[in-house]
Design brief:
single chain; 193 residues; mainly beta; 2 domains; 2 helices; 51% strand
């Protein structure tokens, strides 16, 4: 059995969820256009109990201009979550992490020696000979996020915040007065030039 239910975001149609089952496994495939400026999570709902939601997962790029999430549940998984497969009527997208809107490239410059931006020895070794952008205010740096190359700020990936600079996705990290990495919004201060 296979059917498709609509997927909404803020009450507006945004995509669809394909539901299929062989009575032992229940497969959920959510799909929508890649037009969001943040990480989106897909849920399936029964119309009569919208508070009971089944999380399908975080939407990821499908490579063709779409976002997708796929998850397989067992009959027991559905029973434990209070979901009846035959009564699922709609899906919903929820924003789980917002990207910073877009910044203009003019507010950034290429850091000539990025290893000198930080006092941390591990970061200094990792950044030697790499290319980073530095904010004109000198309170943050950014490295390009691409699936085909290593991330230059890998030692501090947990502190990065995704941001579009121009039309390119970067991971941004803040710099504090001790020249140590911090979350971008964690009280960054202006560094001396």
């Amino acid at each position: 059995m296979q059917r498709i239910i609509p997927l909404y975001y803020n009450g507006m149609p945004a995509g669809s969820i394909s539901l299929s089952t062989d009575k032992t496994r229940y497969v959920f495939c959510a799909q929508c256009p890649d037009t969001f400026t943040g990480l989106m999570r897909a849920y399936a709902h029964m119309l009569e109990s919208p508070a009971t939601a089944l999380c399908i997962g975080v939407m990821s790029p499908g490579g063709d201009g779409t976002l997708r999430a796929r998850r397989i549940f067992t009959k027991n998984d559905l029973r434990m979550s209070g979901i009846e497969f035959d009564r699922l009527e709609r899906g919903e997208l929820k924003l789980c992490r917002s990207f910073i809107k877009s910044e203009t490239i003019e507010r950034w410059f290429a850091a000539p020696e990025p290893e000198k931006l930080f006092n941390d020895a591990v970061l200094q070794r990792a950044l030697k000979g790499r290319t980073l952008l530095c904010g004109l205010d000198r309170t943050r740096v950014a490295a390009e996020l691409r699936p085909d190359i290593p991330f230059d700020l890998a030692p501090v990936f947990c502190l990065t915040k995704p941001v579009y600079i121009g039309k390119t996705l970067y991971g941004m990290v803040g710099i504090n007065t001790e020249r140590m990495p911090v979350k971008p919004e964690a009280g960054n201060v202006l560094l001396e030039e």
